[in-house]
Every structure is written in structure tokens, then in C-alpha cells.
Amino acid sequence: MMVTGLAGADKWMVIRSEPFAVYTNGKDKDAREALAMLVQVQHTLSAQFGKDLQPSWPVTIVLGKGGGKLRLGPGGYLAGAVEAGELAGLLIRENTLPFDEDIERGVIALFSTLEVAGPRVKVGAPVGKPDLAWARMHYLFTDERYSGKTRVLLANLSKGVDPTVAWSNSVGVKESVITEEAKAYLGRGQFGTASLNGKPIDLKRWREEELNAAETAELMARWAGGAPELQGLTMAELEAEAQKRPRWAEPHAQMAALETEEARKAQRWRHAAGLAMRDVSYWQKAAASFGKAELFGEETKCLVAAEKAASTRAERERLHGERLAAANRRVDAEMAAQKTAEDKERAEIERLRQEALNRIRMAEAKANDGKAPVKGKVEEWWEGPKGDASVSGRLERVDCVGGTLRLQVRGEDKKLTGLVVKDLTQLTLEGASEIKLTCGVQKPVRGVVVEYLGKTKEVTRVKFD
């Protein structure tokens, strides 16, 4: 429904009801009716979607200056008339996730027929070219079996709920059944109207403000101006713009482009995406930056959000593939990090072991004092701490935990004994010219005699066969 104003007088006045303002240089009655239309479209549409649908910019109507198509100009959206369907489409796009294209188009077409008489609102007047999308929503709104359930359907769909679940939880009838009934309904060509719960308003109570010459000149300059331009602004200037218009995504996108640290860049893109709910590219850019920062969990969350924001099935399937690839990258990165940590731990254990061996060799060299090796049978001797228990068997496994070793020895009685080496620097390995302990299962499994303290299971001596 189109509401226009008269142009001709030099004096301009304005009537406001946030976030709307209607200017006219004609009759104040036209301005009041135009403002009532804006208020009731927002109120009744919000009720149908179960949330307060707010435009990201204030909406200014300058009656008599043009048609009802909204455009972004200095300070907000501008139009020369009120077009109910145009406003409905703007509010849906800026406040909901994409849902079934035909349902969205049908809702907009239905609300283009909105009629307002103060607090009384109704929809359903025939449109110029009725189609199935319009007929299906008209049918749901006007048929008493479904009219009270339609708002639940729209609320679910606009939040990204699976369509099959949304129809089942609301209308209680499969979408295909409603579509067939709507086809028959369209064929009959008999369309009624539906009353909606309008906002209680009194057109006469809105206060009008008369503009002076400077205010009129400013209004005309705004009308002639273009959309706000943010290119070239500094980070501080963009922050100021974002604070002035907290629901405007563009300043956050521009700040994201200026950031050099990937984690902060990702946060900027994610904030912009949360404001521009249907802009898939913002979610993808946020995901890419999180991925570069190796914050793979956040990357996956952004790709899930991008899937929900996609407007077509093909795009959702493509984004689903990207999400799976990101999840694989995350697993690979975690496994690589774990392997690096394990390799570092093994290297540290080996370093400590080599230090211990070097001390033993230095002590042996000092004891020999340059003498030739003793020939014949060598008697064992040991001057370190002595254990009060021992086990003879095969060393099957070494677990490396922090700076300690846990030895698993299978005794001659086939029982498994767990022992601990707390101080690697004091560990002495005897009985082989070159012995290397590796973490994990021992290959090959070797015979050992291990002395230890029976109370604490702490190893005092290890001798290999």
C-alpha cells in the first residue's frame, strides 16, 4: 500500500516516532497516516517473527519527494513515500537469517497490502499479480486453523531451524500438504482479509515540529546526499562511527581490514557478521582469520554460522564442505602439536641419560687413572644407594611422564611390577656397552635386574643382561 504526500508549501514540518520520522510540506494528516503505517508495519511484523525487528538505520520519509523505495543516505534510510512491503522486506533482511525464499517473498507481498486505521490493522487485500508464494501466506494468515500458528512457523524458520522441524512444531501439517491446499485456494480466487493486533496509537497525539530555514536546508541536503562513505577513515574515526550506529556492520568490516594481528582481525569480522546476519562473506573472513591464528575451534563456529546465513542449498553445501575441511585441519594441527611435545620430552630424557652416562665414564676414567683395562673376570661393585628389594625379568615398557620414568618389568613369575625413576640424573644403567631407553613399548624387550626401595618403588639400580 502506497501513502504519498502533497508538495507545494514552503514550510516543512516533521512528526517522529523512533526510529521513524516523516517530513511534509503539505497536510499534517498525510504525515500522521504515513507514520502510523511505518509504526504498524514494524509492530505487527515483529509480532509475527517473535522478536523486535529494528532497522539498522533510522528511517526518514520526505513526503512528495519520490517513491517508496528505501535508500541509504546521510544519517539513515530515505524515501519519498511509505511502501509497506518495502519496509517489511528491509526489516526481515536486517533481523533474520535467510529462510525459504518463497515464504519470505510471500510474507513481504502479504504485508504490502497492510491497511491501517489507527490501532486497527488488517492484511489480505488482493495484489496485482497473485502467485503461489503470496497465496500460501495469505491462506496461512486468513484460515482460522493456521492463523494462530503461523507466527511460530516464521519465528522458527528465521532462526535457522530445519524447515521440516519448523513446520511440524508450528502448523502441525507438512509443508507439501499446505502447498497443495494453497494451490487450490489460489485457483478459487476468493480471498478474505485477516486482522492483526496493531499497536495502540492515537494519530492526534503525535506532536508536530515546524522546521526553520536552516533545518529545512539540512533536510534537503540530506535528501540530495549519498550513502555514508567510510573509505580512508582511521581506526579511531571508524570506532566513532561504530559507536554512533551500533547496528551498522560496515565500520567493523573496515576496522577488520585495517587490523594486522589475525586474532583481532577475526574478532572484528565476527562482530560485523553478527550485525549483517545474511552476509556470508563476513563469516567466511572471520573463519579465515581464526584459522590463520590457529584458533581452529572459533574457525569452525564461524563456518557453522556461515552455513546458516547461506541463502541457497548449493551455497550451504559448499560451506559445509569448508567446515569439514577446517575440522580436519584442526585435528591435524592438534596431532602435530602433541607429537612435537612428545619428541621434546624424549629428547630431554635422552639428554639427561647421556649426562648421567658421561659422569659414569668420567668417574671410571679417573678411577683407572690411565691404567689398561683389567683382564679376566670382573667382579661387580656398586657404591650407590642400595635397594631393599629387586625384581628379575624383562623390561616391557617405559612411560615418560614429566621428568620421571615409569618402568614396567615382567618378573620371572610372570607378574608385572611397576617401578619409578624420579631423578633421571642419578639413574645408572649397567651391563651393556650402549643402552638407550625409549618411551613406550621396548623393542626389543630385554632382560633386567632392577633393585628398588620396596616402600616407594623407587629404582636404585638397573642391570641389563
Task: Outline the structure in words.
The chain is of the alpha+beta class and 465 residues long. The protein has three domains: 2-205, Neutral Protease, domain 2; 229-332, Serine Threonine Protein Phosphatase 5, Tetratricopeptide repeat; 389-464, OB fold (Dihydrolipoamide Acetyltransferase, E2P). The protein is 46% helix and 19% strand. The protein has 14 helices and 17 strands. The strands form four sheets. Strands 5-6-4-3-2-11 form a six-stranded mixed beta sheet, with helices on both faces. Helix 3 (101-111) packs across helix 4, helix 5 (150-158) packs antiparallel against helix 6 and helix 13 (296-309) packs antiparallel against helix 14 (313-368).
CATH topology of the largest domain: Neutral Protease, domain 2
CATH class of the largest domain: Mainly Alpha
* Approximate shape: elongated
CATH architecture of the largest domain: Orthogonal Bundle
Please give the largest β-sheet.
Answer: 6 strands, mixed
Helix content: 40-55%
Question: Roughly what is the average pLDDT, rounded to an integer?
Answer: 87
Number of domains: 3
Q: How many DSSP-defined strands?
A: 17
